[in-house]
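Researcher: Here's the sequence for the chain we discussed earlier.
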Amino acid sequence: MHIFLSISAKLLQSKSTSFKSLTWIPTVFLLSPKQMSQSTSIPRNQQRIRDHGFDDYMEVEKKIRKVMKFQELLLTQLNSMIAISRLDMLARRFGFKQYEAGKFILKFPHVFEVFEHPVQRILYCRLTRKSLLQIEQEKLALLAQVPQAVTRLRKILLLSNTGRLRLEHVRIARKDFGLPDDFEFSVVLKYPKYFRLFDAKETRNKYIEVVERDPRLTVCAVENVREREYREKGGEEENVRFSFRVNFPPGFKIGKYYKIAVWKWQRLPYWLPYEDISGYDLRSLEAQKRMEKRAVATIHELLSLTVEKKITLERIAHFRLAMDLPKKLKDFLLQHQGIFYISTRGNQGKLHTVFLREAYRKGELIEPNELYLARRRLAELVLLSPRKVIVDRRLINYGKQGGEDEIADYVENGGDHSAARETVREDLGEESLDSDGDCSIDSDGDCSIDTQCTHKEANNDDVTDAAEDTHVTE
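Model: Thanks. This is the structure I predict for it:
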């Protein structure tokens, strides 16, 4: 009996050790493949890495938005000017506090001009000649690219599942797509062979619908980029066929398994954004992966159709249901920081602007268009130094009040002597200097003014209207 109990105790001890070994084996060998599978897939929750080039761009854009609000306010007033006493009251609708509007317009003397009314003897504010020229240049550029805007709107409608979009959603994003303010009449109703405007009975909302589906418009911008890179650089066709340009922001940590996951994702086939997917079964895991990559291609194409290759995340969300985009757009875009960049600058972190990374280099658009250049002209006026205005105002009466001595005094107070002399040539011109008096410019750049040289008093608007080269300073 004693022998039987000892044998059974040994058997139980051996079984317990075998059970322990069985429970220990999965912790080493079965959990490690699970971790490997997670590491070789693109993480869903990623931290946003800042790119200072895009953030600096949005810091300037933040100032431009406020300047444009004041421009629209002035253009709606009689004679495009407003009394300073009324400006503070009207600016509160833009979120400005008391006495903040006056300080704001004084920061941008190249855009806004404060003057005394000749009859009422009170201070008024109006737009400068340079600012009015920039507005006129943007209007001309907007009208000149209306045919491109028609094609752009047709492609946007083809991106939707039903070929239609709400009129209000397109109106909100009209400036991003280069559409005029009255695009409902100048674009939609003017081209009935391309668009159809109707009212929905269920929601009582107006919709824009594409009339004809042109196969020539169903070519994505990323396909043209792939073809161009394949012709120039070559490589394996399987690696280039479904790939996107990836350029990660500085400081983005890329591990070994993350590289493998990106490589697999680049080779993953997907349905094109303009392709009809109503006949496919989307319940499988492979179909969901293809749909996720199709959403990346759709947002990529939507950004390619914008004028400045950027749009706010909130405006993309308006097209989410119509274009089968994910619900959590921000988290979805953070998975692909090498393709898109989300900037939170501009409205105290409440506004999210999505950039197409491959379209920008060092904070500037690689392939600019006329409308983009006209809008950046306002950024140049905003970033111009106020000292330039001081030079212009002093040059108006420099011959009357001492001329060269006054410019020298200004230079001693922190100005640039060569810049002041160059301003004389640009603003007044060599012809006016020769015609108004005995003023000669030497070969070494010095301007010798005779004691009998008299100059007529120039108008402030004529001086600011002179052609001059401006550079954006950060």
